[in-house]
TrEMBL record:
Protein name per the record: YegP family protein
Lineage, uppermost ranks: Bacteria, Bacillati, Actinomycetota, Actinomycetes, Propionibacteriales
Superkingdom, taxonomy of origin: Bacteria
Coiled-coil blocks: none
Stored Gene3D superfamilies: YegP-like
């Protein structure tokens, strides 16, 4: 099984997404969005931009 994005509506009525690892662990979660389309645009942005993201270790 591959990692997957889940889009859902939270208790406040906002749309959010989370990225789950193959083992079901949540590895990323989003802010709240007013519309489902905005949440889906957030997923698309992560998919497009995360592949080239660098790690900024500030420890």
């Amino acid at each position: 099984m591959a990692a997957k994005f889940e889009v859902y509506k939270d208790a406040r009525g906002e749309y959010r997404f989370r990225l789950k690892a193959p083992n079901g662990q949540i590895i990323a979660s989003s802010e709240g969005y007013k519309s489902k389309d905005s949440a889906l645009n957030g997923v698309a942005s992560v998919k497009k931009n995360a592949a080239d993201a660098i790690v900024d270790d500030q420890s």
